[in-house]
Design a protein that fits this description.
There is one protein chain. The protein is mainly alpha-helical. The chain folds into three domains: 23-97, Dna Ligase, domain 1 (2-Layer Sandwich), CATH 3.30.1490; 103-181, no CATH class; 190-333, no CATH class. The protein has 13 helices and seven strands. The chain has helices at residues 2-23, 43-52, 59-68, 88-97, 113-121, 135-141, 166-186, 197-210, 217-229, 237-244, 254-258, 281-288, 312-325; strands at 33-37, 78-82, 103-106, 157-160, 297-300, 306-309, 332-333. The strands form three sheets. A three-stranded antiparallel β-sheet has the order 6-5-7, with helices on one face. A two-stranded antiparallel sheet has the order 1-2. Strand 5 and strand 6 form a beta hairpin. The protein is elongated and about 105 Å long. The N and C termini lie far apart (105 Å). Pfam families: YceG (PF02618). One of its GO terms (molecular function) is lytic endotransglycosylase activity. It catalyses: a peptidoglycan chain = a peptidoglycan chain with N-acetyl-1,6-anhydromuramyl-[peptide] at the reducing end + a peptidoglycan chain with N-acetylglucosamine at the non-reducing end. The record marks 210 as: Important for catalytic activity. Belongs to the transglycosylase MltG family.
Length: 336
């Protein structure tokens, strides 16, 4: 009888050794892939799915290992990344820890709400809930039916998990914008020509569209702030282009600059009625802390940067210089 018990123990030890060796062997994963565990899915079904996917050849080993270690009921739902070299033991620990795959969505600086919606609709991971709604209905879902959506979502990269909805992501971006704007507004420079933080946001969106050179943002902000303070029109092309909508075909004509629309800052005084694009924190900071200096004009140099001028005569000379260099697509903002 003692011999029989010994044999049982020996066979058990050998079996347990084989099971441990199995869960420590790499899964047959040639390239990264994902495993989706639905909420409420039982462990046996998870093992069956792994077997169907040819990831587990000895499902009984996995079941025994999980049962003996009390792991079967601790697995969390979610999407898990399977990479080459991953073992069953490590995979189980990831599922117990809820170490799910993080996805990333970037609200790009300078994009419009229409472009953001297109980006959301093209996303195959987010749960789509907004595609049949118009802009005002989307804002109503966010509790702001009267709010114009442009510029109201912070340009930033957001982490999210599979199962999150497009509305959830917009809500996060909306909250992030409010927080960033409120913090910057509290630390703003004195004597700015804004009646509200919303006007500062509008200015930030213009700055965002005028330059992609980070160091230039405060200086461009200074140009526009001084123009407002001196009663000069902003005369900035991006606002005109935004106001034209689908009518803009890639080139601004003189007739476009004289047509009086709410967004034509060549024809109106002050700021346009709403932001014209999504902004990042740097543009908000620039709008609220403009660089001091004499400049009232700038012109694109053709390399992404701008030439700044304090006097109109100097600006006109710079325009002629860069117009000759880049006759087809030069831009002069403000125009004088």
């Amino acid at each position: 009888m003692a011999v029989g018990a010994f044999l049982v123990l020996l066979l058990g030890a050998i079996a347990w050794q084989r099971i441990n060796a199995y869960v420590d062997s790499p899964l047959p994963v040639g390239e990264p892939r994902t495993l989706l565990i639905e909420r409420g899915q039982g462990f046996n079904q998870i093992v069956a799915d792994l077997e169907t996917a040819n990831l587990v050849q000895r499902p009984i080993f996995l079941r025994i290992y999980a049962r003996i270690n009390g792991l079967a009921h601790r697995v969390k739902a979610g999407e898990y990344e399977l990479e080459p070299g991953l073992t069953l033991r490590v995979l189980l620990q990831k599922m117990i820890d809820g170490d799910t795959l993080r996805h990333f969505f970037t609200v790009v600086e300078g994009t419009t709400f229409a472009q953001l919606r297109e980006q959301l609709e093209a996303n195959t991971v987010l749960l789509q809930t907004l595609s049949e709604l118009d802009d005002s209905e989307v804002m109503a879902q966010l509790g702001e039916p009267e709010q114009h959506p442009e510029g109201m979502f912070l340009a930033e990269t957001y982490q999210y998990l599979r199962g999150m909805s497009d509305l959830d992501l917009l809500r996060r971006a909306r909250t992030s914008l409010d927080e960033a704007l409120a913090q910057a507004w509290e630390k703003r420079a004195s004597e700015l020509p804004y009646e509200s933080a919303y006007e500062a946001l509008t200015m930030a969106s213009i700055i965002e569209k005028e330059t992609a050179v980070a160091q230039e943002r405060p200086r461009i902000s200074g140009v526009f702030v001084r123009r407002l303070q001196q009663g000069m029109r902003l005369q900035t092309d991006p606002t005109v282009i935004y106001g034209m909508g689908a009518e803009y075909k890639g080139n601004l004509r003189r007739s476009d600059l004289v047509q009086k629309t709410p967004y034509n800052t060549y024809a109106i005084e002050g700021l346009p009625p709403t932001p014209i694009a999504m902004v990042g924190k740097d543009a908000i900071e620039a709008a609220l802390n403009p660089e001091a200096g004499p400049w009232l004009f700038f012109v694109a140099k053709g390399d992404g940067s701008h030439h700044f001028s304090a006097r109109l005569s100097e600006h006109n000379s710079a325009v002629r210089r860069y117009q000759l260099q880049r006759r087809e697509d030069y831009r002069s903002t403000p125009g004088g």
